[in-house]
Amino acid sequence: MAIEERNEQTFATRQIHAGAVVDSDVGARVTPIYQSAGYVFPSYDEAEARFSGESVGRAYSRGDNPTNVVAGKRIANLEGGRNGLVVSSGQAAIAMTLFSLAASGDHILSTASLYGGTRQLFDGSLTRQGLNFEFLTAEATEEDWLARVRPETRAVYTESIPNPKNDVVDLELLGRVAAKAGVPLIVDNTVATPYLCRPIEWGADIVIHSTSKWLSGHGSVIGGVIIDAGKFDWAANSERFPHFTKGSFEGAPSFIERYGADTFISYVKSVTVLDYGPTVPPTSTFLLLHGIETLSLRMERHVENAQRVAEWLEARPEVGSVDYSGLPSNAYYELAQKYLPDGAGSVVSFDLPGGPEAARKFVEALELVSHMTHIGDVRTLALHMQSTIFKRSSQEQRDEAGVTPGLIRLSIGIEGIDDILTDLERGLEATKA
Question: In whole angstroms, what is the distance from residue 179 CA to residue 324 CA?
Answer without folding.
Answer: 30
